[in-house]
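Sequence only, no structure available. Ideas?
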Amino acid sequence: MKTKWWTWIMLAAGIAAGLIVYPDMPDRLPVHWGISGEADRFADKTAGLFLLPGIALLLSLFMEVSAGLEARRKHGEANLPNMYIIRNIVVLGLMLLQAYVIYFGYGGQLPISKVMAIVLGLIFIVTGNYMPRLRPNRFVGIRTPYTLSNPDAWRKANRLGGMLFAAGGALMLLTLALPTQLQTNVLPVLIVLTALSQLYARLKAGNAPKP
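Reply:
I predicted one. C-alpha cells follow.
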C-alpha cells in the first residue's frame, strides 16, 4: 500500500472511533492540559472527540496540496515519500492523543505527560531521521534563502537539524523512566530546547558564507 494512504486510513479510524464511543462519553471532555499535567480546559464531547481529527485533516490536506506543488518541481517526486512519512507520523501522534481523550472519558488515570513523551518523542525521532533525506523544497525542512539555493547548505543544515530533532525525541522517550512529577517538569524543558535547536540550525545555515 502506498505510504500516502496510511494518513487517510488513520483519519478514518479516528473519526469512526469518535462516532462509536460518542454515546458513552461524558458531556465534557478535556481539550487542553496545563504544564502540571492537569486538564485545565474542557469542551463539549463533540469538540473533545473530533477536534484532533479535524486538526489532523486540515494538516493532511495542506500537506497534500504541498506535495502536489512539490511534484511539479524538478526532482520533486523524490521528496514525496519522505513528506508522506513525516505526515503519517504527525497524524498518528494526533490520533494517539485522541485515543487518550477517549481513555480519559472512560475514567482512565494515565498521566498526560507519559502520553506526550511517547507522541512527541516518536514524532521528533521519525521527523529527524527523514529530514536529511529531503531535497530542497519550500514546505518541509530547514528552509532559508541560502539552503534553498545551495543544495550542499541544505544537506548540512537538515542533517544538523535532523540529528538535534532525533536526539530531543530520544530524550523525551527516556523521561518515561522518571517519576511522573519529575517528568512533568523535565518534558516541557526538552520540548522548548528541541524547538530552539531548529532555530539554531536555521540561523547557522542562514549565517553561513555564500560561495
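The helical segments are 5-21, 45-71, 80-105, 112-130, 145-149, 151-174, 180-206.
Hope that gets you unstuck.
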